[in-house]
Amino acid sequence: MKNLVHNNIGAFLTILIIFSGLSQTAEAQNRPGNTELGLILGEPTGISLKMWQSNRTAFDAALAWSFGRNESIHIHANYLVHEPLQVDRGSLMLYYGIGARTILADDPKFGVRIPVGLQYIIPSSRLSLFFEVAPILDLVPATNFGVNGGLGVRYFL
Q1: Are the CB atoms for 131 and 115 separated by under 8 Å?
Q2: Is residue 17 over pLDDT 50?
Q3: What does the mean pLDDT of the chain come to?
Q4: 24: which DSSP letter?
Q5: Is 81 exposed, middle or buried (0-12, 13-18, 19+ CB in 10 A)?
Q6: What is the pLDDT of residue 10?
Q7: What's the sign of the alpha-carbon dihedral 10, 112, 17, 45?
Q8: Is there a smaller number of Cβ atoms within 10 Å at the N or the C end of the chain?
């Protein structure tokens, strides 16, 4: 179990380092920047990071605390595709993607995450708001299905 937890942490850190290097190629469109940092509230609750890769794609990740049946540290990373929606002010996007998540607890878990959400970039500010639901298929130590979801706010750096 201990090796599984250490391997999962190493894999997520490697993914985040790769993603941060790729974020330098992002193009800005209706965004005050390419990197966002903020909070997600829900299941899980914690720190949220988003790095835009192009006008339509981004990587996001979270380091959070799960308040479910077994309190634990939750880490996830996703590749997201954004579809712009028509609004009078600001920028509203539907997004969807695929990623991975790990739960670091006495009984660690690793699985696939499929987030779907909405993000609104507030005009004339450096803030964005988002809402997402993410079905989860745990693969390790056993196959299990679950759902995460939350509301969040991020600041463009």
Answers
A1: no
A2: no
A3: 86
A4: G
A5: middle
A6: 52
A7: negative
A8: N
